[in-house]
Amino acid sequence: MAAVANSELNGSPTERTAQLLRLQSAACREIGSPLYGDLLALAADDLLVGGPVAQVLAGHLQTRPAGVLALRMLGAAHALALSGRAPELAAWYPSAGGVIDSEPGSPHAWAALKNTLAEQPDAIRPWLDWPPQTNEVGRAAALIGGLLNIAAQESLPIRLVEVGASAGLNLRADQFYVPGDASSYGDPGSPVVLSHGWQGAAPPDSHVEVIERTGADLAPIDPTSAHGQLTLTAYVWPDQTDRLARLRGALAVARSVPAELRTESATRTVTSIELVPGTWTVLWHSIFRQYLDETQRAELAEGVAALGAAATGQARFAYLYLEQSRSGGCPVVLTTWPGGERRVLGTASPHGIPVHWSAPTSARP
Questions:
Q1: Secondary element (H or E) of residue 284
Q2: What is the biggest distance separating any 2 CA atoms in the chain, rounded to whole angstroms?
Q3: Which of 136, 4, 164 minimizes the C-alpha distance to 68?
Q4: In angstroms, rounded to a whole number, what is the distance separating the alpha carbons of residues 144 and 150?
Q5: Is residue 287 left, alpha or beta, with left meaning phi > 0 and alpha meaning psi from -120 to 50?
Q6: Distance between CA atoms of 336 and 251, rounded to whole angstroms?
């Protein structure tokens, strides 16, 4: 769902939240989850009549639109289905071994979700306090292409830093495989296959060597733990089997390729980065900026500017991101220093795949 401002919503907190549920419903349909599209439309109706959705969301109706309250609630219910604590709901979730509701509007799945919310509100509510930890592996398709562009500019080892890293799965992006429509990258034997990940112009055919992997998050998840794996899986939409397969493959990679995860803010991470001669330091984030307030965004921009000013031909710095744009789509943007050249490399879906690469174009820093 594209970021929505409070000023764009009308009515009481309940009415505004119902509008957000409907907007998220439309977004889920648009990017491939008819099930969540149905469930959120019905959840909006239930909220307005004071049903179980209203009881669960009480006290959270002032959550910022960018906090995607709808996905927090659905993630909590999905976790109950996956863990065997909501068997009625699991019966309608393919991710938990169930089947897709074949009736228009998913009435059976909705009845199961409504009952789960009514019967286990105390298991749902703790999930409402934190943004979704959607460590979407498909976004690695954008990261890999960006790294190839960086390495093509100057072939140096890469120190990769990610803010809003969640479980740090995409810190292992260079270990994934992209079979090409536009081009291909990586080992076909990788557990993670980003099918149809690249379209349009091919990224440069360069060599990527990642020598450090550092991620930071306010609440990082251990991808090697059972709890961490459940949490990450819960935020994948249950009727999207390709996303689930990518996630499970990335969890396997994480067990064999270590990465450092820190519990800290993006501001602290960026201000602690030191550029190292003989390397690229690459700062990356994806669908993360919407969770920052204006002060935090300014601090991130100031930190990036300071790192850019400190970069030299020997100690290089790159800033790469995939974020939603109010003008539509999610551009893949790369800025490199010294020089501060900013390029829009292409555009992608919020889940990363497919990335439509374009011939590199320059834009103002």
A1: strand 279-286
A2: 63
A3: 4
A4: 10
A5: left
A6: 31
Which strand (E) or helix (H) includes residue 200?
Answer: strand 198-200
Tokens standing for residue 7: 């000023």
For residues 162 and 217, what is the distance between their CA atoms, to the nearest angstrom? 9
Statement: the pTM of the whole predicted model exceeds 0.70: yes
CA distances from 218 to 202, 266, 288 (A): 35, 8, 12
Amino acid code (one letter) for 50: G
Q: At residue 13, what are phi and psi to the nearest 5 degrees?
A: -55, -40
Give me the half-sphere count of Cα atoms (radius 13 Å) on the Cβ side of residue 297: 8
Strand 315-322, strand 330-337: pairing: antiparallel
pLDDT tens digits along 253-303: 999 999 999 999 999 999 999 999 999 999 999 999 988 999 999 999 999
How many CB atoms are closer than 10 A to CB 274?
9
CA atoms within 13 A on the CB side of 338: 7
79 exposure class (CB count in 10 Å sphere: 0-12, 13-18, 19+): buried
d(CA 195, CA 354): 9
| Pairing, β 315-322 against β 279-286 | parallel
